[in-house]
């Protein structure tokens, strides 16, 4: 997990540097469109702001979808982020999800004897 954290940190700082260098405003928070050209943002640091522009890029990131009946503990039941931090490759695993990350987990099982990908419509 340390290698992943180092990579993510380096990439994030690299993007932040490029934004500053190219006069791109970087706002951390959750937002929603107020109208066609305005985004209202609840800032991570607290408070809120509105951003108006002709071209707006929203980088949403990703979040695991809860699955009924399973509690994620990041040890036995893991998200894709938790899977990157596993100390060893499990002998067997079930991957729930038919998206890109789920397919990568199945195709890159790296030594697991079997893997299954179950596409679900939640």
Structural key phrases:
single chain; 122 residues; alpha+beta; 2 domains; three-stranded antiparallel sheet; two-stranded parallel ribbon; 5 strands
Element layout with pairings:
Layout: H1 2-21, E1 29-35, E2 38-43, E3 48-52, H2 80-84, E4 92-96, H3 100-107, E5 114-118
Parallel strand pairs: 4-5
Antiparallel strand pairs: 1-2, 2-3
Task: Describe the structure in your own words.
A hairpin with a 2-residue loop joins β1 (29-35) and β2. The protein has 3 helices and 5 strands; from the N terminus they run αβββαβαβ. With 122 residues, the chain is of the alpha+beta class. A 3-stranded antiparallel sheet has the order 1-2-3, with no helix packed on it. The chain has a two-stranded parallel ribbon with strand order 4-5. The protein has helices at residues 2-21, 80-84, 100-107; strands at residues 29-35, 38-43, 48-52, 92-96, 114-118. The chain has 2 domains: 2-52, no CATH class; 63-122, no CATH class.
């Amino acid at each position: 997990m340390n290698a992943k954290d180092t990579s993510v940190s380096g990439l994030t700082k690299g993007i932040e540097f490029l934004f500053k260098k190219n006069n791109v405003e970087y706002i951390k928070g959750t937002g929603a469109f107020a109208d066609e050209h305005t985004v209202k943002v609840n800032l991570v640091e607290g408070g809120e702001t509105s951003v108006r522009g002709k071209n707006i890029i929203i980088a949403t990131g990703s979040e695991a979808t809860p699955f009924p009946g399973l509690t994620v503990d990041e040890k036995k039941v893991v998200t894709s982020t938790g899977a990157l931090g596993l100390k060893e490759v499990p002998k067997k695993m079930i991957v729930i999800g038919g998206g890109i990350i789920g397919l990568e987990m199945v195709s890159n099982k790296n030594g697991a004897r079997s893997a299954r990908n179950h596409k679900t419509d939640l």
